Structures are given as structure tokens and as C-alpha cells.
Amino acid sequence: MEIAAYMAELGEQARAAATLVARSTTAMRNQALLATAEALDAARDELTMANIKDLDKGRENGLDPAMLDRLELTPARIDTMIEGLRQVASLPDPIGEITDMTYRPSGIQVGRMRVPLGVIGIIYESRPNVTVEAASLCLKSGNAAILRGGSESIHSNQAVAACLARGLAEAGLPETSVQVVKTTDRAAVGELITIPQYVDVIVPRGGKGLIERISADARVPVIKHLDGICHVYIDSHADPEKALAVAVNAKTQRYGTCNTMETLLVDEEIAADLLPLLAEAFSAKDVELRGCPATQAILPQVVAATEADWSEEYLAPILAVKVVAGLDAAIAHINRYSSQHTDCIVTENFTRARRFLTEVDSSSVMVNASTRFADGFEYGLGAEIGISTDKIHARGPVGLEGLTSQKYVVFGDGHIRT
User: Fold this and answer.
1) Cα–Cα distance between 158 and 176 in angstroms, integer?
2) What value does the mean pLDDT take over residues 348-373?
3) Alpha-carbon gap, residue 195 to 200, rounded angstroms
């Protein structure tokens, strides 16, 4: 297969399909999603057999148990894929919404209309269910999509793609509205991220190495985040019970997610009283603590933190702990070391909470709530394509609205400028 020609063909087909998807009705797009759900339900045996091929190949290639688990399509995960399609179909359609209409002194009316981005390229690893998630969100928001999954899930993704094609056809939309790349050649990724004439935006979902490579090489705008170095700061005005609950949940509810706390900051005024309670709670969860000298003075059993620990995304039961000299020091530490994903303050002081919200430069900033809430579903977006720490266009969890843009619309009645 000549990769450049193949990817150009996919791009050309996606660009043509994007025009038809953008002008399709909400009912058509919802029908495509619901018909795909039915196709997945009817193709359970085919999906399972394709997935077994990927799992067998993965074991041969030495994939670790965690990767194999992410790769597996269990009956429950197929159920979740089907339910996800139905949920996205039930979400409000953002396309065509006109807002902020105002009359200008000239007599014209000016407003903004929400429109699709066009063609979205999504590059992801391992989990075949991402194929359905990505396709459903792109389609619902009026976009065409080119999906490039990991080589380890090629058979599973093609089985899912067949169901998507059936759903699109039943709704009268072109099957090229959602295309799943058929080759495992890594050169396909290089082509996909460098064809701005066909692709409007790239969304990488995977490890830091993948996202760094795409960010460095892409000639197409990228919606992404690199790390999830999330902080919880316990202020001297915090309720100890709330602080304990929020900090423990932020770290231990799940270890391997980008919105898991990796550094805990504690105000020096309350550190001597609160740190022993926190240490006991984390010890019960088998979390290793790495502390600054002030932390070690209170908790001698804690491992010494190094400079590297403040910039580390552990994705594991390890937590960096630092005692800080108040709110200013906490904000300064977060703005230096945070990956601008999600950061939280625990406090009963409204003024301090407002300062934290204003001055911490992250895509999600929280007061008295676990960082684990930084998620599209929890934010009421219905679903998410990923998290963005960029400052232009989408920021934070990216749902349907994040896969759209706005254009100005002007209404007049023969108005001319004088």
C-alpha cells in the first residue's frame, strides 16, 4: 500500500463527506448513531472473534496485562459502547445555534452561529471502544472523522468500522463520514497530521510520547494535553474532614487517570495536625508518600522528595507532598509545576477560594472537590473526546461544543455602509 496516496484518498473522501454531514439534519445524525448501536448489538460474535485475534497477537508480541485488559472487548464493554451511542444521540445538537444577536447602530443584527470544525483526525491507542466514542461525538457535532487506532487493535477496529458503515448507510449519510484507517503502518500517522488541505484538527489520545510526537510534527491544529500533574492545596482555613475526603479520593479513586492528584500541598499552619491523619489514610491505601524536608520533619517515615517529583505524573500509588507557606506559595508552586490540567483548593474562606480560581492557570480549577471530577460526563457534556490544556478554542474536557467553532452571522434589510 502506498501510504501517502492512501491517506490522501481518505482525506479527499472525508472532505467531501464533511460537507454532507454538516448540512444533514439532527434526525439523520441521530439515526446513524442509533442504527450503529443496533449493528453493534447484532455483530457481537463478529466483534468478539475479531477481538480474540487482536488479543492473541498481543500476547504473542508480549503486551503487558494492563494493555491486554484495555484491548479486550468484553460483553459488558460492548454494552457500554451501545449505551454510549444512545446517550450521544440523546444529547442536544449544538450545530446551527445562533447566539448573542444584537442590533448595531447601523441597523444590522450581528450574532454567532455554531458550526462544525470539518474533518477531525483522531489518533489513539489500544482501546477499541474509543473508535465508537470518537465516531459518535464527531458525527453528532456535524463533522467527518478519520480514525487511526493502534496496530494492536486493528481487527477489532475494523469490525467496529463495519458497524459504523452500516449505521451511516441506514441514515442516508456517506460511509466515508467516518473512516477507520486500515493500515498499521506508522507512516499513516505522519501523513494524517500533515494534510491540512483535508484535515482541520487532530485529536491524539494516548501516552505522552505519542502526543509529543504529534504536537511536534503536525501541520494541522492539535487539541491535546500532555500530562496530568494535578494538585490539591489544603488551605489553613480548610475543614479537616473535607480536606481528608477530597485528598484521599483525588489520589486513590483511580491511579491511572490524567485527573488523579499527583502532588498534595498543605499550609504550614495546619501541617502538624493534618499530615499525620493524611499519612494514616494514604497508608491504608498503600500509597507511597514522598515529602519535602518540612513534611519529613512531621512524618519521618516519608521518603525524601526530589526536584523531579514535583513534575512527575506517577499514574501509580505514589504521592508527592509539600508543606507551603500559605496561599501565595501554593499558587506559585502550582503555576510552576502544574501541567494546567486540574488543580484544587480546600478552604472555607471565600476570598481565598476566589483568588485561587483567578490566579491558578489551569483548564479546570476546583474548590472543595476532588480532581477526579474533571471529566466530560461529570461536567454534563454527556461524553468527551479528551482533555485540552490549550488556551485557544477548546479548554478542559472536550465534548460536542469543543468539536465545533463559531462564525459571525449578520442580518440586514438592504443596509449599506455609509
Assistant:
1) 14
2) 97
3) 9
Hey, what's the torsion of the CAs at 146, 152, 153, 154, to 10 degrees?
60
Q: What is the pLDDT of residue 57?
A: 96
Q: Which residue from 250, 245, 248 is spatially nearest to 231, judged by alpha carbons? A: 250
pLDDT at 1: 64
pLDDT at 67: 85
Q: How many CA within 13 A on the CB side of residue 260?
A: 19
Question: Which secondary structure element, helix H or strand E, spans residue 55, and what is its range?
Answer: helix 44-60
Task: For residues 180 and 261, give the distance between their C-alpha atoms in angstroms, rounded to a whole number.
Answer: 34
SS3 state of residue 146: strand
Higher pLDDT, 383 or 268: 268
Share of the chain above pLDDT 70, in %: 100
Cα-atom radius of gyration of the chain, to the nearest Å? 24
- Region 55-72: mean pLDDT is 91
Torsion, CA 81, CA 114, CA 226, CA 150, rounded to 10: 40
To which H or E segment does residue 124 belong? strand 119-124
| pLDDT at 205 (0 to 100) | 87
CB 281 within 8 Å of CB 271: no
H-helix or E-strand spanning residue 184: none
Break the chain down into helix, strand, coil percent, rounded to 5. 45, 20, 35
46 Cα distance to chain centroid: 29
Q: Which residue has the cell 499519612?
A: 279
**Largest pairwise CA distance in the chain:** 79
Indicate the SS3 state at residue 355.
helix
3-state secondary structure (DSSP) of residue 233: strand
Give the 3-state secondary structure of residue 394. coil
- How confident is the model over 1-20, as pLDDT tens digits? 699 999 999 999 999 999 99
Q: Let me know: does 142 contact 401? Beta carbons within 8 Å.
A: no
Q: Cβ of 166: how many Cβ atoms within 10 Å?
A: 19
The predicted pLDDT at position 213 comes to 92
Going by C-alpha positions, the residue among 328, 326, 327, 310 that lies closest to residue 318 is 310
User: Distance between CA atoms of 326 and 336, rounded to whole angstroms?
Assistant: 16
The grid cell for 290 is: 514522598
Distance from C-alpha of 359 to C-alpha of 335, rounded to nearest angstrom: 9
The span from the CA of 376 to the CA of 398, in Å, is: 7
Mean pLDDT of 110-130: 94
> Bridge partners of 120?
145, 201
pTM of the model: 0.87
Alpha helix ranges (H) inside 285-417: 293-298, 327-337, 350-359
- Give the closest residue to 342 by CA, choosing from 262, 399, 267, 398: 262
